[in-house]
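tool=predict chain=A
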Amino acid sequence: MTRLLFLNQSLSSNPKPISHSHTYYNYSVSRSFHNSISNLSLAFLHPIRSPAIRAFCSKPSSAVGVGSPPSMTEDISYLTQREAAEIDEILMGPLGFSVDQLMELAGLSVATSIAEVYKPSKYNRVLAICGPGNNGGDGLVAARHLHHFGYKPSVCYPKRTAKPLYTGLVTQLESLSVPFISVEDLPLDLSKDFDIIVDAMFGFSFHGSPRPPFDNLIQKLVCINNYDQTHQKSSAIVSIDIPSGWHVEGDGGAEGIKPDMLVSLTAPKLCAKKFFGPHHFLGGRFVPPSIADKYKLRLPPYPGTSMCVRIGRPAQVDISALRENYISPEFLEEQVEADPFDQFRKWFDDVVAAGLREPNAMALSTASKNGKPSSRMVLLKGFDKNGFVWYTNYESRKAHELSENPHASLLFHWDGLNRQVRVEGSVQKVSDEESDKYFHSRPQGSQIGAIVSKQSTVVPGRHVLYDQYKELEEKFSDGSIIPKPKNWGGYRLKPELFEFWQGQKSRLHDRLQYSPEEINGQQVWKIERLAP
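tool=predict ok
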C-alpha cells in the first residue's frame, strides 16, 4: 500500500522554552519580555496607513510591502527568532487568532505547496513524522489535506501530545484510515516506500542536539540526501518552516538535512537564506496589514485563492523530461453519443460542472490562401447544430485569412479533465442582426473596446488606446446606445469533422473521430477510433 510519512517537532537534549516553527505559538518568556510584547500589541490596535498585503498566488512573483515592488529573492523579508515570537504573541493576543485556526491554515498551505510541485499521479506515497509541538500539528493537518488531494499519507507520531487539539487531529486522520507507523516499523531506507517525506520535527525555537528518536529520524533524512548525490532514486524532502536541526538564524551545517522544498510560514526565517533547494514556498495566508506595516514585511502577493506562493524563480527543468501520465476513465465507442454535437454538449457540461476556468476558450487556427497558418485563443459564444460561433474584428488577420480561405480548425483543451476536442469545418459570417444582438449584450466597456481596437494594426503605445477609450467612455456616459462598428461581428464554423481526445496512461490515449457519410440518402456521422 502506498504511504506518506510526516516528521514532527523533536525534543532537544537541552530543553528550552517551547516555541514553534510558525509565528503563532505560546512562548515561555520573561516578564520584561512579556511586558514589551504587551506594549507592542497595543500599538496594533491603532489604524495602519500602509496597504494590506496582497493575496498570494502560486506563481513566481514580485514581493510587495513597503516601498516599490522588488523582484529578487533578496528583497523578501526574513524574520529573526525574536521577531517571529513577537508576531506570534500579537496574532494570538489583540488580533484574536487561536492556535487551531493558524495550525489549520498552515497545514493547508503546506499541502497546497506540495501539490503545486509533486503531483499525486507520480508522488503518491507521502510520509509525515510528527513531533509533540505545533510544528507537528501542522504535519497532521497537512496529512489530512493531502489525503483529500489524492495522496496516500502515513504518519509517524512518536511523541504524542495529550491536548485535545492534537488528539482531535489524530482522530480525524484515523477516521480517514490514514495509517500511523511506529519508529520501529519504519523501513531502513525510506525512499523505497515513500515518494515524499514531510519534515515537521523542529520549530524555530530549536537549540542543542535532538534526543531519540528524532536524532535517528534526522539521520534517515540525511541518508536520503546521500542517495540523491549518488543518483539513486530518493524521496523528496519537504520541510515545514525550518529544516529540522537547523537554527532559526543559522543553518544545519554540512551534515544537516538538505530539503528539496521549504515551506516558510508567515514570513521566511533568517535560516531560509541558506536554503538552496529547488522549491521555496511561502504559506500561511493570515498576515494582517498591521503586522506587515509594523515589521515592514516585504512578501510575495497572493492573487486568486491560492494558499501558497513560490519565492524566487522555479528551478530550471529539463523540458524533454516534462510529462504527465494521465489517469482517466475509458472513453469507449459504445458509450458515446451518436451525434457529435450531443457529445460536445455532454463534455462541455462536464467542464462547467467541474468549475474549470474559461471552459469556452478555444484555439482558432486559420490559414492564408498560400497556406501560411496562424493561431490564437478566442472565446466560443454559442453553438448548436448549425455550428460554433465567435466574434471579432472583420479587419483582423484572422478575418483576412478567412476571407481568402474560409476554412478553420477549433481546439478546446480542458486540462482538468484530461480532455481535448478538435473541430474542423467551413466558416461564414453570421447575420448582422445576430452580431448586433450579441454586441449590445456585452458590458459597455467591451463595446467601447471593440470600437477603439483596430485589431492587428500597429499602435504607437498603450496610451493611445487608453486615451481613445476614455474619450468614448465620456461620450457615452449618458447611457445612450453605442452603435456596433460595421467592421465587427461574428463567424460560424460549420463542422465537417470532430475529434474527441481523452488522456490515458502510457500515452495510450482515446481518440474518437466523427466524420459525415451518406447512408441510404441520409447523412449520418461515422465514429472511428484513431491510434494515439
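The CA atoms of residues 512 and 529 lie 5 Å apart. The two ends are 31 Å apart (CA to CA).
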